[in-house]
Protein backbone atom coordinates (compact mmCIF):
# COMPACT_ATOMS: atom_id res chain seq x y z
CA UNK A 1 0.00 0.00 0.00
CA UNK A 2 2.78 2.40 0.93
CA UNK A 3 4.58 1.58 -2.33
CA UNK A 4 1.39 2.15 -4.26
CA UNK A 5 1.01 5.60 -2.66
CA UNK A 6 4.59 6.46 -3.51
CA UNK A 7 4.02 5.22 -7.03
CA UNK A 8 0.91 7.36 -7.36
CA UNK A 9 2.72 10.42 -6.00
CA UNK A 10 5.57 9.72 -8.36
CA UNK A 11 3.23 9.55 -11.32
CA UNK A 12 1.51 12.75 -10.19
CA UNK A 13 4.82 14.54 -9.83
CA UNK A 14 5.88 13.34 -13.25
CA UNK A 15 2.61 14.59 -14.68
CA UNK A 16 3.14 18.01 -13.09
CA UNK A 17 6.61 18.11 -14.55
CA UNK A 18 5.23 17.37 -17.99
CA UNK A 19 2.36 19.85 -17.75
CA UNK A 20 4.02 22.53 -15.66
CA UNK A 21 7.55 22.59 -17.03
CA UNK A 22 7.80 20.80 -20.34
CA UNK A 23 5.04 22.73 -22.14
CA UNK A 24 6.53 26.17 -21.45
CA UNK A 25 9.97 24.85 -22.33
CA UNK A 26 8.58 23.56 -25.61
CA UNK A 27 6.90 26.94 -26.22
CA UNK A 28 10.12 28.81 -25.55
CA UNK A 29 12.02 26.29 -27.66
CA UNK A 30 9.56 26.83 -30.52
CA UNK A 31 10.15 30.59 -30.29
CA UNK A 32 13.91 30.09 -30.10
CA UNK A 33 13.99 27.92 -33.22
CA UNK A 34 11.68 30.20 -35.21
CA UNK A 35 11.79 30.81 -38.11
CA UNK A 36 12.87 27.57 -39.72
CA UNK A 37 11.87 28.33 -43.32
CA UNK A 38 10.46 31.16 -45.46
CA UNK A 39 7.40 32.95 -44.09
CA UNK A 40 4.27 33.35 -46.19
CA UNK A 41 2.13 36.51 -45.87
CA UNK A 42 -1.36 36.06 -47.32
CA UNK A 43 -3.16 39.07 -48.82
CA UNK A 44 -6.80 39.04 -49.91
CA UNK A 45 -6.20 41.54 -52.72
CA UNK A 46 -4.58 41.55 -56.13
CA UNK A 47 -0.91 42.34 -56.88
CA UNK A 48 -0.39 46.08 -57.04
CA UNK A 49 -3.23 46.90 -54.65
CA UNK A 50 -2.53 48.97 -51.52
CA UNK A 51 -2.62 45.93 -49.15
CA UNK A 52 -0.30 44.04 -51.50
CA UNK A 53 2.19 46.93 -51.61
CA UNK A 54 2.10 47.25 -47.82
CA UNK A 55 2.65 43.50 -47.36
CA UNK A 56 5.59 43.38 -49.78
CA UNK A 57 7.22 46.46 -48.27
CA UNK A 58 6.87 45.07 -44.74
CA UNK A 59 8.01 41.62 -45.82
CA UNK A 60 11.21 42.97 -47.33
CA UNK A 61 12.11 44.76 -44.09
CA UNK A 62 10.97 41.95 -41.77
CA UNK A 63 13.12 39.43 -43.66
CA UNK A 64 16.21 41.41 -42.63
CA UNK A 65 15.37 40.85 -38.96
CA UNK A 66 14.06 37.29 -39.24
CA UNK A 67 16.85 36.15 -41.60
CA UNK A 68 14.48 34.26 -43.90
CA UNK A 69 12.51 35.33 -47.00
CA UNK A 70 9.06 36.80 -46.25
CA UNK A 71 6.95 36.14 -49.33
CA UNK A 72 3.52 37.49 -50.28
CA UNK A 73 0.76 35.19 -51.54
CA UNK A 74 -2.34 36.78 -53.10
CA UNK A 75 -5.54 34.80 -52.43
CA UNK A 76 -8.50 36.50 -54.07
CA UNK A 77 -12.21 35.85 -53.95
CA UNK A 78 -15.35 35.77 -51.81
CA UNK A 79 -14.75 39.24 -50.33
CA UNK A 80 -11.59 38.06 -48.58
CA UNK A 81 -13.13 34.94 -47.05
CA UNK A 82 -10.88 32.59 -49.07
CA UNK A 83 -7.75 34.32 -47.77
CA UNK A 84 -9.03 34.54 -44.19
CA UNK A 85 -10.06 30.89 -44.12
CA UNK A 86 -6.73 29.70 -45.50
CA UNK A 87 -4.84 31.49 -42.72
CA UNK A 88 -7.29 30.44 -40.01
CA UNK A 89 -6.70 26.79 -40.94
CA UNK A 90 -2.93 27.05 -41.49
CA UNK A 91 -0.44 25.46 -39.10
CA UNK A 92 -0.05 27.80 -36.08
CA UNK A 93 3.73 27.90 -36.25
CA UNK A 94 4.31 31.49 -37.40
CA UNK A 95 5.22 30.61 -40.97
CA UNK A 96 1.82 31.73 -42.31
CA UNK A 97 0.72 35.30 -41.61
CA UNK A 98 -2.13 37.50 -42.82
CA UNK A 99 -1.78 41.15 -43.80
CA UNK A 100 -5.47 41.93 -43.36
CA UNK A 101 -7.72 44.96 -43.49
CA UNK A 102 -10.39 46.14 -41.11
CA UNK A 103 -12.90 44.61 -43.52
CA UNK A 104 -11.26 41.20 -43.29
CA UNK A 105 -10.93 41.16 -39.51
CA UNK A 106 -13.81 43.24 -38.15
CA UNK A 107 -16.46 43.77 -40.81
CA UNK A 108 -16.77 40.34 -42.40
CA UNK A 109 -18.67 38.85 -39.46
CA UNK A 110 -21.22 41.67 -39.70
CA UNK A 111 -21.84 41.44 -43.44
CA UNK A 112 -21.42 37.75 -44.25
CA UNK A 113 -23.95 35.41 -42.69
CA UNK A 114 -21.91 32.24 -42.63
CA UNK A 115 -18.13 32.20 -42.37
CA UNK A 116 -16.14 28.96 -42.62
CA UNK A 117 -14.13 30.03 -39.57
CA UNK A 118 -14.94 31.62 -36.21
CA UNK A 119 -14.10 35.30 -36.59
CA UNK A 120 -13.81 35.71 -32.81
CA UNK A 121 -11.18 33.01 -32.31
CA UNK A 122 -9.50 32.37 -35.66
CA UNK A 123 -6.52 34.72 -35.33
CA UNK A 124 -3.90 36.02 -32.93
CA UNK A 125 -2.65 39.55 -33.32
CA UNK A 126 0.94 40.16 -34.39
CA UNK A 127 0.66 43.94 -34.61
CA UNK A 128 -1.17 46.95 -35.98
CA UNK A 129 0.27 48.40 -39.19
CA UNK A 130 -1.47 51.57 -40.36
CA UNK A 131 -4.76 53.33 -40.85
CA UNK A 132 -6.29 55.15 -43.78
CA UNK A 133 -9.00 57.78 -43.09
CA UNK A 134 -12.21 58.17 -45.04
CA UNK A 135 -13.58 61.57 -46.04
CA UNK A 136 -16.52 63.29 -47.72
CA UNK A 137 -15.87 65.15 -50.97
CA UNK A 138 -18.59 67.44 -52.37
CA UNK A 139 -18.97 68.83 -55.87
CA UNK A 140 -17.43 72.27 -56.31
CA UNK A 141 -20.72 74.15 -56.77
CA UNK A 142 -22.58 72.60 -53.85
CA UNK A 143 -23.01 75.55 -51.43
CA UNK A 144 -21.97 73.78 -48.23
CA UNK A 145 -18.94 74.36 -46.02
CA UNK A 146 -19.68 72.06 -43.10
CA UNK A 147 -21.55 68.90 -42.18
CA UNK A 148 -24.29 71.08 -40.67
CA UNK A 149 -24.64 72.87 -44.03
CA UNK A 150 -24.77 69.50 -45.76
CA UNK A 151 -27.60 68.27 -43.56
CA UNK A 152 -29.54 71.49 -44.07
CA UNK A 153 -29.01 71.35 -47.85
CA UNK A 154 -30.30 67.78 -47.94
CA UNK A 155 -33.66 69.01 -46.63
CA UNK A 156 -33.72 71.95 -49.02
CA UNK A 157 -34.24 69.74 -52.07
CA UNK A 158 -37.27 67.49 -52.49
CA UNK A 159 -35.11 64.66 -53.73
CA UNK A 160 -32.39 65.37 -51.17
CA UNK A 161 -28.70 64.85 -51.90
CA UNK A 162 -27.05 61.76 -53.32
CA UNK A 163 -23.68 60.26 -52.56
CA UNK A 164 -21.59 57.72 -54.39
CA UNK A 165 -19.42 55.13 -52.74
CA UNK A 166 -17.94 51.69 -53.27
CA UNK A 167 -17.39 48.73 -51.01
CA UNK A 168 -18.77 48.64 -47.48
CA UNK A 169 -17.25 51.38 -45.32
CA UNK A 170 -18.34 54.42 -47.35
CA UNK A 171 -22.00 53.41 -47.51
CA UNK A 172 -21.95 52.80 -43.76
CA UNK A 173 -20.53 56.28 -43.12
CA UNK A 174 -23.38 57.80 -45.11
CA UNK A 175 -25.95 55.59 -43.41
CA UNK A 176 -24.63 56.52 -39.96
CA UNK A 177 -24.91 60.24 -40.77
CA UNK A 178 -28.48 59.67 -41.93
CA UNK A 179 -29.30 57.69 -38.78
CA UNK A 180 -27.88 60.34 -36.44
CA UNK A 181 -29.30 63.41 -38.17
CA UNK A 182 -32.22 62.39 -40.34
CA UNK A 183 -30.44 63.87 -43.38
CA UNK A 184 -32.16 63.28 -46.71
CA UNK A 185 -29.38 61.41 -48.52
CA UNK A 186 -29.56 58.68 -51.16
CA UNK A 187 -26.78 56.14 -51.63
CA UNK A 188 -25.67 55.38 -55.21
CA UNK A 189 -23.47 52.25 -55.34
CA UNK A 190 -20.32 52.17 -57.47
CA UNK A 191 -17.79 49.44 -58.19
CA UNK A 192 -14.88 51.73 -57.37
CA UNK A 193 -14.04 55.25 -56.22
CA UNK A 194 -12.80 56.46 -59.62
CA UNK A 195 -16.12 56.03 -61.53
CA UNK A 196 -17.89 57.84 -58.69
CA UNK A 197 -15.39 60.71 -58.87
CA UNK A 198 -15.94 61.04 -62.61
CA UNK A 199 -19.68 61.43 -61.99
CA UNK A 200 -19.02 63.90 -59.16
CA UNK A 201 -17.01 66.16 -61.47
CA UNK A 202 -19.67 65.69 -64.16
CA UNK A 203 -22.38 66.85 -61.78
CA UNK A 204 -24.30 63.58 -61.51
CA UNK A 205 -23.34 63.18 -57.82
CA UNK A 206 -23.50 65.64 -54.95
CA UNK A 207 -20.75 63.95 -52.97
CA UNK A 208 -18.48 60.92 -52.73
CA UNK A 209 -17.49 59.08 -49.58
CA UNK A 210 -14.22 57.18 -49.93
CA UNK A 211 -10.70 56.88 -48.54
CA UNK A 212 -8.93 60.22 -48.28
CA UNK A 213 -6.03 59.49 -50.69
CA UNK A 214 -8.53 58.76 -53.48
CA UNK A 215 -10.33 62.06 -52.90
CA UNK A 216 -7.39 64.38 -52.28
CA UNK A 217 -6.30 65.02 -55.91
CA UNK A 218 -9.65 66.54 -56.97
CA UNK A 219 -9.63 68.73 -53.86
CA UNK A 220 -6.10 69.92 -54.61
CA UNK A 221 -7.04 70.63 -58.23
CA UNK A 222 -10.05 72.70 -57.16
CA UNK A 223 -12.48 70.43 -59.00
CA UNK A 224 -14.25 69.37 -55.79
CA UNK A 225 -14.06 70.21 -52.10
CA UNK A 226 -13.19 68.11 -49.08
CA UNK A 227 -15.75 68.69 -46.36
CA UNK A 228 -14.69 66.47 -43.46
CA UNK A 229 -12.54 63.48 -42.53
CA UNK A 230 -14.14 60.61 -40.65
CA UNK A 231 -11.36 59.94 -38.14
CA UNK A 232 -11.04 61.16 -34.57
CA UNK A 233 -7.90 63.15 -35.33
CA UNK A 234 -7.14 65.36 -38.31
CA UNK A 235 -5.13 63.75 -41.06
CA UNK A 236 -1.58 64.82 -41.86
CA UNK A 237 -2.58 64.53 -45.52
CA UNK A 238 -5.19 67.26 -45.12
CA UNK A 239 -4.56 69.02 -41.81
CA UNK A 240 -6.92 71.90 -42.61
CA UNK A 241 -9.95 69.61 -43.00
CA UNK A 242 -12.04 69.19 -39.82
CA UNK A 243 -13.05 65.85 -38.33
CA UNK A 244 -16.54 64.50 -37.74
CA UNK A 245 -15.96 64.99 -34.01
CA UNK A 246 -15.24 68.68 -34.57
CA UNK A 247 -18.42 68.81 -36.65
CA UNK A 248 -20.59 67.70 -33.75
CA UNK A 249 -20.38 63.91 -34.14
CA UNK A 250 -18.72 62.89 -30.91
CA UNK A 251 -17.09 59.46 -31.05
CA UNK A 252 -17.33 59.23 -34.85
CA UNK A 253 -14.09 57.55 -35.90
CA UNK A 254 -14.07 55.53 -39.11
CA UNK A 255 -11.05 54.46 -41.11
CA UNK A 256 -9.79 51.45 -42.93
CA UNK A 257 -6.85 49.93 -41.15
CA UNK A 258 -4.27 47.26 -41.78
CA UNK A 259 -2.91 44.72 -39.32
CA UNK A 260 -0.87 41.54 -39.29
CA UNK A 261 -2.27 38.42 -37.63
CA UNK A 262 -1.34 34.74 -37.31
CA UNK A 263 -3.45 31.60 -36.86
CA UNK A 264 -4.78 31.15 -33.34
CA UNK A 265 -2.55 28.80 -31.37
CA UNK A 266 0.70 30.33 -32.59
CA UNK A 267 3.11 30.21 -29.59
CA UNK A 268 3.80 33.33 -27.56
CA UNK A 269 7.52 33.19 -28.32
CA UNK A 270 6.87 33.16 -32.05
CA UNK A 271 4.33 35.99 -31.81
CA UNK A 272 6.89 38.00 -29.84
CA UNK A 273 9.56 37.58 -32.51
CA UNK A 274 7.12 38.51 -35.27
CA UNK A 275 5.90 41.57 -33.37
CA UNK A 276 9.46 42.75 -32.85
CA UNK A 277 10.24 42.33 -36.56
CA UNK A 278 7.03 44.08 -37.61
CA UNK A 279 7.46 47.07 -35.30
CA UNK A 280 11.06 47.37 -36.41
CA UNK A 281 9.96 47.40 -40.05
CA UNK A 282 7.36 50.11 -39.37
CA UNK A 283 10.11 52.37 -38.00
CA UNK A 284 12.22 52.03 -41.14
CA UNK A 285 12.47 54.93 -43.58
CA UNK A 286 11.58 52.65 -46.50
CA UNK A 287 8.28 51.48 -45.01
CA UNK A 288 7.40 54.97 -43.76
CA UNK A 289 7.96 56.36 -47.26
CA UNK A 290 5.73 53.74 -48.90
CA UNK A 291 2.92 54.11 -46.37
CA UNK A 292 3.00 57.90 -46.59
CA UNK A 293 2.80 57.61 -50.36
CA UNK A 294 -0.37 55.57 -49.95
CA UNK A 295 -1.84 58.16 -47.58
CA UNK A 296 -1.47 55.94 -44.52
CA UNK A 297 -0.17 56.60 -41.04
CA UNK A 298 2.06 53.87 -39.62
CA UNK A 299 1.38 52.85 -36.05
CA UNK A 300 2.72 49.72 -34.38
CA UNK A 301 1.24 47.95 -31.36
CA UNK A 302 1.61 45.02 -29.04
CA UNK A 303 -0.17 41.77 -29.94
CA UNK A 304 -2.64 42.27 -27.09
CA UNK A 305 -3.46 45.81 -28.16
CA UNK A 306 -4.31 44.49 -31.61
CA UNK A 307 -6.42 41.62 -30.24
CA UNK A 308 -8.39 44.11 -28.15
CA UNK A 309 -8.83 46.46 -31.11
CA UNK A 310 -10.13 43.70 -33.40
CA UNK A 311 -12.66 42.60 -30.78
CA UNK A 312 -13.92 46.14 -30.17
CA UNK A 313 -14.05 46.97 -33.88
CA UNK A 314 -15.92 43.76 -34.68
CA UNK A 315 -18.52 44.59 -32.02
CA UNK A 316 -18.78 48.19 -33.24
CA UNK A 317 -19.30 47.31 -36.89
CA UNK A 318 -21.82 44.60 -36.08
CA UNK A 319 -23.77 47.16 -34.05
CA UNK A 320 -23.50 49.80 -36.80
CA UNK A 321 -24.74 47.39 -39.46
CA UNK A 322 -27.72 46.48 -37.28
CA UNK A 323 -28.57 50.08 -36.47
CA UNK A 324 -28.23 51.53 -39.95
CA UNK A 325 -29.71 48.52 -41.74
CA UNK A 326 -27.60 49.72 -44.66
CA UNK A 327 -26.20 46.29 -45.47
CA UNK A 328 -28.07 43.03 -45.73
CA UNK A 329 -25.70 40.34 -44.53
CA UNK A 330 -24.57 38.35 -47.54
CA UNK A 331 -25.07 34.56 -47.62
What this model shows, in words?
This protein is an alpha/beta fold. It has 2 domains: 39-132 and 256-324, D-Maltodextrin-Binding Protein, domain 2 (3-Layer(aba) Sandwich); 133-229, D-Maltodextrin-Binding Protein, domain 2. The protein is 47% helix and 20% strand. The protein has 11 helices and 10 strands. Strands 1, 2, 3, 4, 5, 6, 7, 8, 9 and 10 form a 10-stranded mixed sheet that branches. Helix 2 (50-66) packs across helix 9 and helix 2 (50-66) packs antiparallel against helix 10. The model is unreliable at 1-19 and 21-28 (pLDDT under 50).
Q: Major sheet: size, sense and barrel closure? A: 10 strands, mixed
CATH architecture of the largest domain: 3-Layer(aba) Sandwich
Give average pLDDT, whole number: 88
Q: Total number of helical segments?
A: 11
The chain-level structural class is alpha/beta
Helix content: 40-55%
Radius of gyration: 24 Å
- Tell the overall outline: elongated
Q: Give the distance, in angstroms, between the N- and C-terminal Cα atoms.
A: 64 Å
The figure for the number of domains is 2
CATH class of the largest domain: Alpha Beta
In CATH, what is the homologous superfamily of the largest domain? Answer: Bordetella uptake gene, domain 1
* Poorly predicted sequence stretches spanning 5 or more consecutive residues: 1-19, 21-28
User: What is the name of the CATH topology of the largest domain?
Assistant: D-Maltodextrin-Binding Protein, domain 2
Number of strand segments: 10
- The fraction of residues in strands falls at 15-25%
Secondary-structure element pattern, one letter each:
HEHEHEHEHEHEHEHEEHHEH
